[in-house]
Amino acid sequence: PDGVLPEAVKILLKEKGDLFLQVFNKELLQGRFPRSWKSARLVLLPKPGRDQNEASGFRPICLLDTMGKVYEALIRRRVELELERRAPLDEMQFGFRRGRSTVGAMQEAIDSIRAAGQGKWRALILLDVKNAFNTANWECILEELTAREVNRRLVDLVADYLRDRRLEICSGTRREINIGVPQGSVMGPLLWNVLYDGVLRIERPEGTKILAYADDLAIVVTDETEAGMVEKGNTVMHTVDRWLTGRGLELAPEKTEAVVFTTRKARSAGFSLRGTIIPFSPTVKYLGVWIDRHLNFGRHVEEACKKAERTAMALARIMPNIGGPSSKKRRVLGNVVDSVLLYAAPVWAAALGIKKSMNRLSSVQRRVALRIAMAYRTVSTIAAQ
């Protein structure tokens, strides 16, 4: 909003770091967050595969002053240290935390399912929270920080950070906002984790586990019988639903999915949430990976290969065998396809033991290898690689 580029801020901090340090320290001591840094410009990014005529088809991003984000980073680090010392966040939150990723969340879910053993009924339920970040309740965030005995001055500073925020819409009009954590901010992810942490600690039946990656919730349920599994799953979902409702958040039952890992025929119609039946699906997509009821990841390999092939075809236009980019640039472009193809590979590595999946992956990598090596189609895969 202030028009000062990040590069300029970087130079200013390098040349006049002592001056800005004095400014930041003064604001910290007074427990203030400058009002001019609370203004944000709203940018709407289309969500792939979503209806662009609906508000839910866009991801709202807040563009903030870079200097304000530097100050946010200082506050965030202090809050993090307080939380680590007094009341650490739950281990099952994998989003917005150092050393954690989507792969960790997926691996935890898969390991829990496998550890239960094939003799048990096992299920993975994926919950969808409506407009999560934009409806985060500020009062609940501050109450949670207070309950964790975070330094009172820091809590007051966070309260001031949230207060009097303004959003500039594309039309140029400005609106006061009093709810939600700004997507694109430095503090937002941490404040979300603080608010959301309680859902991971709710009392639940034995044989169940709740995992979170940002606002994505997954429930692992295991039991000796199908009826017991369904009952446990319903109980946890209803408890989560009540917890979220009490904090101004809402589940979307129609978007909730579930997969049951068994070779036996299920007799139940599925799980139930607020009167909506959630049927057992043969596959579900969790954090970008397709998980099937046999855990062989056949569908994921196929979907990943299709996506990688589309990327490879686009790159092929700028990588002709005669002319085009240098060998080094070709390898860089080829890595783009590999990153698409091998996303979360540790999670679905079991698929490599299936010949069909292995051949499918090799065929995609072969096409890219031939382009990088500027080789003829008759060249063997081993030679091209």
From TrEMBL:
Domain Reverse transcriptase span(s) in chain numbering: 26-291
Pfam family, one: RVT_1
Tree of life domain: Eukaryota
Biological processes annotated in GO: DNA biosynthetic process
Coiled coil: none
Name the record gives this protein: Retrotransposable element
Native source species: Anoplophora glabripennis
